[in-house]
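User: My advisor asked me to double-check a structure prediction for Phosphorylated carbohydrates phosphatase before group meeting. I don't want to rely on an old file, so could you generate it fresh from this sequence?
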Amino acid sequence: MIKAVIFDMDGVLINTEPLHYQCWVEIFKERYGIDLDYDVYKPCIGSTRLHFMNLIKENYGITFESLAVMNQIMKEKKDEIIARDGFPEMPGVGQMLCCLKDAGYRLAVASSSPKPVITETLETLDLMKYFDVVTSGDEVKNPKPAPDTFLFAAKQLGVLVDECIVIEDSTNGGKAAKAAKMPCIWMHNLDSGDQEIPDAVIEITAWTQESIEKIMKFLHFDQEKVLK
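Assistant: Sure, here is a fresh prediction for Phosphorylated carbohydrates phosphatase from the sequence you gave:
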């Protein structure tokens, strides 16, 4: 039976994918005079900055001095845009986390974002209090779509793989959940771009009362017949 729920962050707990793409578009335009093609950016959704750095080198021949320098450039641009336009919150996410916590589930974040970014985001949105474990793709050998991030989160939670369910918005995340042998709930966030999780046990599009009830019903009553 499911004892733990493992969340991706970007596009699931916070609507950051449009923000991230906007950041990189502005960075590459301002620094290199390049119009960042969405088709180049798209494969990195749900994966790590290192993967994105490799994609940029492959497609544009641009090499950042280091991952730390790349992260700092991104942080400065992100802070600039948030100061200008506000933080891209997702309505209802706090209610959903509260329901799961009150029901006794252990909760984790397993995001491909750098650990300081995850921590800062969750603290800014007052969501850190709901999570037992916070993990990053930087802490494992292989990023999503490899299963490492979710397997590491389960280990940190102290639960078995078959006691976990994942909530993801990206194709890479869905593949990672499948590789980890964890069922996946698909947060079909239209702002996350052209993503697909065909093996998802549930599909939702927002953190509404209806979607929260749908998830709780699955966890309490439907999981045996779906997962057997």
